[in-house]
Every structure is written in C-alpha cells, then in structure tokens.
Amino acid sequence: MKPTTVILGIAFANALGQAHSDGWNQFRGPNGSGVAKDGKPPVELDAARLAWKTAMPPGLSAPVLSSERVFLTGLAKGRLVTLAVDKADGKIAWQRAAPKVDLEKVHKASHPATPSVLVGENRVFTYFGSYGLICHDHDGRELWKKPIRTPRSLYGMSTSPILHGEHLILVLDNDANLPGSRLSQSKVIAYNKTNGEVSWEIPRPFHRSGWSTPMIWKHDNGTELVVLGNGRVSGYDMKSGTQKWFVPGFSRETISTPVAGKNILYASSSKLGGGADIRVDPLPFWEAVIHFDQNSDGKIERKEMTGHFTFPIRPELPPGHPGFGIPLPEDKRRRQERLDGMFRGVDRNRDKFWTKEEFISNMRGGRGKPLLIAIRPGGQGDITDTHLKWELNRSIPEIPSPLLYGNLIYMVRNGGLLSAVDAANGKLLYRERLNAPGQYSASPVAANDHVYLVSNRGVITVVKAGRQFEITHQHDLNDPVFVTPAIDKNTLYVRTEKTLLAFREKK
C-alpha cells in the first residue's frame, strides 16, 4: 500500500471545496444533517396522504434517495440484498443479492443489513459488514465489488459510508487487536468510487467498535473528516490524513452522527446505560445485578454470573431482554473470557465478590458522561479547554443523533422526551413529553418548519419547529419503526419493520 500521507495529498487536492449533495443520498440525508432544506412533506400523515405501501424484507438500513428511486438493504431468503424502489408507485425496480457469505453475529436488537446505502451520480454503494462493498449503477448493474474482512464488533456493523469528492469513506472500528499488540485494528479507509481501489487509510489504534457514521465538516479554516468513536470525537486533516484534534469524555458506546452549522460542530453521546444526566442513579443497576445473587448473601460471586447475566445498561428491562445489558459472545469460551474480564473490572480489591459499594463506585467512574458539545474550528490536540464553545449534560439520547434545524438543536430520548437547545449557547429551552412513550432508535428529521420523530412502537409525532413546544400531528402506524425516515421535495419515506411507506403531499 502506498504511504498514507502521500496518497492523501494527491487524493484530496481536487476534492476539497466540492459541494456535498443536497439530496437525501446517505444516512440522514445531506451530510448526515437530517434536514431537507427545500422539502415540503405533509404535516398530517393520514390515509389520504399515504401514496403507497410496499412490503420489504427485514433490515435496519434507513431509506436513501435518488431523483427517481428509494434504496434500502435487507435479508431475503438468507441472502443480503440491495433494493431499489420506484418513488412514483412503490414498485420494486430491482433487487440484487450480495455474494453468499456467513452472516456476522449481531446483537438481538440489530441486524446484518443495518448500514444505509450511499447514492452517488449513477452509483449505488452498499456496505455489508458480513461481506464488504458492492457498487451498482442506478439500474442495478454491478460495477465492482470489494470483500472486506468483517471487523469484530460488540453489536454488529452499522456505520454507513459517506462520499466526498471521488472517494467513498468508511469507518471500520474494530475490537480485534493488531497482531502481537494491544492496539486495535480500527481504521478509516477511503475507496475510489470508480473502481473500489483503496486510496488511503487512517489507523485508529486506540479505538474499539463504534456505530457512528462520519461526516465532513466544512468551516472557515478548511475541511475536516469528523469521526465520533468510543471515548472521543476526532477531526482529521483531509490533506495529510493526520488527526488534528480530539475531545475525550464520551461513552464507550457512541452511535450518533455529529452535525454542523454556522462554523460550529455539535457532537453527542449518552452515558453507558443511557443515563440522562451526569448524576446517574447507580442503584437500579445494582438491583438488576443482585437479581442473580443465588445464595442471598447480598454479594455477587463469579460462579453466580450465569444464565442471562451481563452488565446491565438498561436496568428497567428484564434480564434476557435484548436491550438489558452488554451483549456477550455465543461461543462458550469467549463468553467465559468476557465474563471473567467483566468480573475483574469491578472486583478491584480481588476478594472474589462484588459488593454493593464496590459496584456503585465502579458505576460512578470511568464510563464517560452524557455529552452534547459545541466545537469551534481551528484546534490542535486535546481541545477540551480551548475550543469548546459550550457543553450540555442533560437529555442526551442513547441512539438518535441530534438535529440542528434553524438555530435550535433537537434531541429525542427514550420515554418520548423531546428537548430543544439553543445552538448559540447550549441553553435548554424545553424538555417535553411527546405522548408517545417507549424507546426511540430513529433520529429526528426536519423539513417545512417541522420536526418528524418516530418511536420504536411506530408512532410518528410532528412538532412545530421553534422555541416553544407544539405538537402539530400524531399518527400511529401500528408497525414498529427502528430507522430514520427520508425526505424529498414532497414525500416522507418511513421504513417499518415490514414495509416501506410514502406519505406524499397532494399537489
């Protein structure tokens, strides 16, 4: 492979300054923003505005758009597939299967078809963690494919590729170590969009598996690649490939995509376990663990870590629920190794017990904190003390990305709590319930002076954009929704567990 710095200097000499697509061509639309600037989808999502409804194979990729089609992925008859759906009538235009492979092991709440498709000019790029990259044209003809070794991931691969200039950029953070090292195999790779050849790669040896999609930050000082990974958000120089700056303090589990506007970058991540605020109450987590105390002595021994035991991250859920705790490998040996490491991490005094005091002390330290930060451009190294404009530690979502719309940042948490934050100063303007409880995985999207939010139960809530909380419309799809909707000029596309729906404003 050619030296990274040389290749980067050549690769981006012509790419800098090229505009991003204004269309919904990737996960969360233009540069991952979640905003359709000229979109005017319906505000009332009733049966009269349902243009069509099409059955879809299971999958968790969000819909992305070209001028004429909607693109998704799924799992059909044991094969990973890319699908193209006609916008006009919802008919499936084509479906193409990836090469037959063993499917990666994923969390029960995840899926092997989770990364979203990337659409370029007459190009459709699909990344499957189980296989790698495949490129089709808009009519479904395969142009090239590139197998990529599946990274080891706690939940399964979900990061989506992005496009910048002539390059497709993919974050491959990895729990596997480099040979003979304690450093990870994590990296960012840029592929030539024409043929799939590697143009450059950036090692990320101190990062482990992550699920955030990167974004391109264009500001007055230049253009940077921004990647939110476990523990920190980092900015990379597009000319040299070097890491320019970072901000630590984020959770081990980072999922959301940063957003930018008016020369400021905004990045968010919840505390491990979904704690809403810095002062998370550790008692419910201990009560979830002590459930496994078989001899009722008020302590946890290693031999009691059986059955559905794992470190809880959502203690309100029952043990065995997919969202209850940190997922463990199915392989018996690796599972035992993971549990051994988990036990040692809390048993600091090596007395072979977890006590309540010991567990709570562990919960209060070293796990990151809930963060929404505003970053000014121009920093070098750790910029925590020099380039942070403000920091907020309340109402931070676990999975959904923040939405910057107008001068406000919108965030939705589990339980149906919507918060609005002043982007200029980080002031929390309101935190209100949507009357649509349950978990939220889909990120908010916006158009036409409204914010669209969808719960996992499938309840869509439309909120008027602004500093005052106002629900405009609410509609129950009666079908679970786990992925972010897409928006074009007059249509809202929603992928449910079983279907793809198009709500279209009448002309």
CATH superfamily of the largest domain: YVTN repeat-like/Quinoprotein amine dehydrogenase
The total strand number stands at 33
Name the overall outline.
Answer: globular
Domain tally: 2
Spatially, the strands of the biggest sheet line up as 14-15-16-17-21
- Global Rg: 22 Å
- CATH class of the largest domain reads Mainly Beta
Structural class: mainly beta
Spans of at least 5 consecutive residues with low confidence: 1-20, 274-278
Given the structure, what is the number of helices? Answer: 4
Q: What is the correct CATH architecture of the largest domain?
A: 7 Propeller
Q: Please estimate the helix content.
A: under 10%
Q: Which fold name fills CATH's third level, the topology of the largest domain?
A: Methylamine Dehydrogenase, Chain H
Question: Biggest sheet, in brief?
Answer: 5 strands, mixed
| Overall average pLDDT | 89
Beta-strand percent range: 25-35%
* N/C terminus separation: 54 Å
